């Protein structure tokens, strides 16, 4: 359309950020940056003030995830995509089995396939819009999948593959767009890892992992074997999980982190825990997600992309639009009105909206969003 659609101010959400990552950052987090401008920003990450922030992150996440005995919170630079390579270097001994059902769950499998010191991974592939968990496989030592597939809005169960513990295999689950938004029992994993730019409302460039004693021991064993004469594996310091563990125990990272990211992350963790922790945050996300799914089910032009109601994500909601309604035009009109980051995942290539409903997003704003989408679609049809 040549004319811009103007949504009445009274209909607009108070905050128009609905990104699936980077996600909305609360004003309180920005104020925390200002408060730390003279005492934390531009100072050494190996000195007490910044290390205290890291300590608060580790303690806060330990409480949030109800850490079992022996589990540790470990963090490092590079984001979850760097952790995929770290897992290939330090956690997969020989061969891994993967559940893949979207762009991000597939990327980790591709990293393992390209590692010259690992055997070809076993792939259990599912179609986009569904999930597929890896099955018991005799000759593997790691099972890997994503708790939430960010590209498609599919949530998968987090439970150990039957018999995996007996065979000595570790369970590695990508929680990037799930952690903080979906319930999880981390005792069902050996590494539950994520980046902070989703439910934890911070910037990217950092990875956080909840590690079991088995994962910590595996990293030590793998990296020790890599130093033996005749070993085929090279574990560079940046990808050494043992080095990350050692530094995290000192409340620091191996390399210099973005201190602003740490400050915002610490503030978000404190906000989540003060409001009731995982129970509160996951219920809040479920409420927002149900608003969208219920709206789409009632709509004459929209429907949830994920058919299985049990597999529908409560953090990233994907909604298909009828061919008569252009998602690109809807997204553009929303953006013109300050409602941003609602477009579907580019590589999926569907006529689709993708909406992040992480804890920082107000459920009332999600309700307003549905009314704004209806308003835009009505005007596009004129």
UniProtKB/TrEMBL annotation:
<comment type="function">
    <text>Catalyzes the reversible conversion of 3-phosphohydroxypyruvate to phosphoserine and of 3-hydroxy-2-oxo-4-phosphonooxybutanoate to phosphohydroxythreonine.</text>
</comment>
<dbReference type="InterPro" id="IPR015422">
    <property type="entry name" value="PyrdxlP-dep_Trfase_small"/>
</dbReference>
<keyword id="KW-0663">Pyridoxal phosphate</keyword>
<dbReference type="InterPro" id="IPR006272">
    <property type="entry name" value="Pser_aminoTfrase_mycobac"/>
</dbReference>
<keyword id="KW-0032">Aminotransferase</keyword>
<dbReference type="InterPro" id="IPR022278">
    <property type="entry name" value="Pser_aminoTfrase"/>
</dbReference>
<comment type="similarity">
    <text>Belongs to the class-V pyridoxal-phosphate-dependent aminotransferase family. SerC subfamily.</text>
</comment>
<dbReference type="GO" id="GO:0006564">
    <property type="term" value="P:L-serine biosynthetic process"/>
</dbReference>
<feature type="domain" description="Aminotransferase class V">
    <location>
        <begin position="138"/>
        <end position="344"/>
    </location>
</feature>
<dbReference type="InterPro" id="IPR015421">
    <property type="entry name" value="PyrdxlP-dep_Trfase_major"/>
</dbReference>
<dbReference type="GO" id="GO:0008453">
    <property type="term" value="F:alanine-glyoxylate transaminase activity"/>
</dbReference>
<comment type="pathway">
    <text>Amino-acid biosynthesis; L-serine biosynthesis; L-serine from 3-phospho-D-glycerate: step 2/3.</text>
</comment>
<dbReference type="GO" id="GO:0004760">
    <property type="term" value="F:L-serine-pyruvate transaminase activity"/>
</dbReference>
<keyword id="KW-0664">Pyridoxine biosynthesis</keyword>
<dbReference type="GO" id="GO:0004648">
    <property type="term" value="F:O-phospho-L-serine:2-oxoglutarate aminotransferase activity"/>
</dbReference>
<keyword id="KW-0718">Serine biosynthesis</keyword>
<dbReference type="Pfam" id="PF00266">
    <property type="entry name" value="Aminotran_5"/>
</dbReference>
<keyword id="KW-0028">Amino-acid biosynthesis</keyword>
<keyword id="KW-0963">Cytoplasm</keyword>
<keyword id="KW-0808">Transferase</keyword>
<dbReference type="GO" id="GO:0019265">
    <property type="term" value="P:glycine biosynthetic process, by transamination of glyoxylate"/>
</dbReference>
<dbReference type="InterPro" id="IPR015424">
    <property type="entry name" value="PyrdxlP-dep_Trfase"/>
</dbReference>
<dbReference type="GO" id="GO:0008615">
    <property type="term" value="P:pyridoxine biosynthetic process"/>
</dbReference>
<dbReference type="InterPro" id="IPR000192">
    <property type="entry name" value="Aminotrans_V_dom"/>
</dbReference>
<protein>
    <recommendedName>
        <fullName>phosphoserine transaminase</fullName>
        <ecNumber>2.6.1.52</ecNumber>
    </recommendedName>
</protein>
């Amino acid at each position: 359309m040549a004319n811009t659609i103007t949504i009445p101010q009274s209909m607009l959400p108070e905050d128009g950020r609905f990104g699936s990552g980077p996600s909305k950052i609360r004003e309180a987090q920005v104020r925390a940056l200002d408060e730390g401008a003279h005492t934390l920003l531009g100072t050494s990450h190996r000195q007490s003030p910044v290390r205290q922030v890291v300590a608060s992150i580790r303690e806060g996440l330990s409480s949030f995830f109800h850490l079992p005995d022996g589990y540790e919170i470990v963090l490092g630079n590079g984001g979850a995509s760097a952790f995929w390579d770290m897992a290939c270097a330090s956690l997969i001994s020989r061969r891994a089995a993967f559940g893949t059902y979207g762009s991000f769950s597939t990327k980790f499998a591709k990293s393992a396939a390209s590692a010259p010191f690992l055997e070809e991974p076993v792939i259990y592939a599912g179609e986009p819009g569904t999930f597929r968990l890896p099955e018991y496989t005799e000759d593997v030592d790691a099972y890997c999948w994503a708790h939430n597939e960010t590209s498609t809005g599919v949530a998968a169960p987090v439970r150990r593959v039957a018999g995996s513990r007996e065979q000595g295999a570790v369970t590695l689950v990508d929680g990037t767009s799930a952690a903080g938004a979906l319930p999880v029992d981390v005792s069902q994993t050996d590494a539950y890892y994520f980046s902070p730019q989703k439910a934890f409302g911070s910037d990217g460039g950092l990875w956080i992992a909840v590690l079991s004693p088995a994962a910590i021991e595996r990293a030590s064993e793998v990296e020790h074997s890599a130093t033996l004469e005749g070993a085929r594996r090279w574990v560079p310091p940046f990808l050494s999980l043992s080095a990350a563990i050692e530094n995290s125990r000192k409340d620091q990272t191996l390399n210099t982190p973005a201190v602003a990211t740490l400050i915002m992350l610490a503030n978000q963790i404190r906000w989540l825990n003060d409001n009731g922790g995982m129970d509160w945050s996951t219920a809040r996300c479920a409420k927002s997600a149900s608003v969208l799914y219920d709206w789409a089910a009632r709509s004459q032009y929209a429907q949830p992309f994920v058919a299985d109601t049990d597999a529908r994500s409560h953090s990233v909601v994907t909604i298909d639009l009828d061919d008569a309604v252009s998602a690109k035009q809807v997204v553009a009109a929303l953006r013109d009105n300050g409602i941003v980051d609602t477009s579907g995942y580019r590589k999926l290539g569907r006529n689709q909206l993708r909406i992040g409903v992480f804890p920082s997003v107000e459920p009332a704003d999600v309700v307003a969003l549905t009314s704004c989408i209806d308003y835009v679609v009505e005007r596009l049809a004129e």
